[in-house]
Amino acid sequence: MRTTISEELKMLAGMARDFAAKELVDEREEHDRFPFAPLFEDVLGKAVEVGFFAVMLPEEAGGSAEPVTALCVVLDEVCQADASLGATIFTNALAQEVIGQAGGTDKVVMIACEDGSFRQGLIAFPSYNDPGEVDHCARAARARGGYELSGGVEYVVLGGLVKRALLPAKVEGTEGYSWFLVDLDADGIDASEPVLSLGMHACPAVDLSLSAVPGALVGEEGRGGEYFEAAVDRLSAAAAAMAAGVMKGSFAEALEYSRQREQGGRLIVDWSGLRVMLADMALKAKVADMLVEKAAFAADRGELGWQLASRAAALMVGEMATVATTDGIQALGGYGYMKDYGQEKRFRDAKQIQSLMGITHMRRLQFMQRVMDGEAAW
Which of 126, 191, 141, 137 shows the shortest CA–CA distance to 169? Predict the structure, then answer.
């Protein structure tokens, strides 16, 4: 994403690239051992300090004038090294966006700027679920002038790590679901051990059980689905940027390896079969880069049809990344399956990125339904 972005965003990209090279690359394998090894909390603290979690805030609060593009720039660069940090940044941004869509931008700024620590400033969120499509949604009862939440919410990303969570719950007597900010230190909350995921191990998630836990309503009762879908429109481009970054990282490692490894008396990059595979990876990465850049640009400027452009980018780039990372493994032969290299991790990460904001095939059906309802497909 370096062709049409502003000089300010190019500087942000450079900072994210340098951060990833310094903080992520050398310790990637160790970070991926979580939850059987310590979480990279020092890296999270540094990411807060450099502002990676603040790009979606209003400009006067330290955010970017082009928030979606800025988020995509950061995620692209970070995910080339390790998508776990990217998923953490994405989860917090998605929670911020849902609250903002509900009219709570001031609340988002207050939380983000509270004391500068990631435990206080980040918001846990079930970023792999579409609450409108799952049964495991908490219940909210009106009590003492507020609300109390009971039940369970599965796979809450950052749920065992930070102070607050934004959780979906169905209010008794209303249609749909609503969003509630919950203090994770409150009585009545029980968090599971970190759930071992397919990819992005260092972006921890837990299952939460709640019993009469106070919750602060975000927006209006029953409009949670509306806020979530609006957030998905904006953040789909960011999910595409994550997949594009993973794809670029896989290609770069495959190319470097093929320029060093010899077989049959010559470098394997000179064998036509491998070179075709590398060409396919490079082409996919280039197309993905163009899709992300266009989708983010359109979202920030509110261009006609930007919503479906963002969603289409996420669906297509996510699919391309799973193919490209498979080729990235094959390019390294047997080494591609070893944790010493980053390729097998990138494959797992790419598959998990596809699940952000809901199951892939359901998001495809939603896309088609919106076209049938009158939105222009192109």
Answer: 137
Name the least confident of 109-118, 189-198, 244-253, 327-336: 109-118
Closest alpha carbon to 204 in 213, 194, 212, 214: 194
The mean pLDDT value for 83-92 works out to 98
Contact 85, 47 (CB under 8 A): yes
Helix, strand, or coil (residue 208): strand
349 burial (CB, 10 Å; 0-12 / 13-18 / 19+) is: buried
The separation between CA 21 and the C-alpha centre of its own chain, rounded to angstroms, equals: 20
- 141, 147 Cβ separation under 8 angstroms: yes
| pLDDT tens per residue across span 233-274 | 999 999 999 999 999 999 999 999 999 998 888 999 999 999
Retrieve residue 216's tokens.
């602060």
92 and 64 co-located in one domain: yes
Our CA angle for 358, 359, 363, nearest 5°, is 80
Regarding beta strands 164-171 and 205-218, do their DSSP bridges make them parallel or antiparallel, or are they unpaired?
A: unpaired
Separation of alpha carbons 206 and 138, rounded Å: 15
Backbone angles phi, psi at 272, to 5 degrees: -65, -35
Indicate which CATH number applies to the domain containing 164. 2.40.110.10
Structural element, H or E, at residue 74: helix 67-81
Assigned token pair, 371: 């076209």
Task: Indicate if 131 and 171 belong to the same structural domain.
Answer: yes
Among 201, 230, 194, 223, smallest CA distance to 310 is for: 230
The two three-digit tokens of residue 300, written as one number: 């920030």
Residue 1 lies in a domain: no
Beta-carbon-side half-sphere exposure of residue 203 (alpha carbons within 13 Å): 30
DSSP letter at 334 equals G
* pLDDT for the residue 331: 95
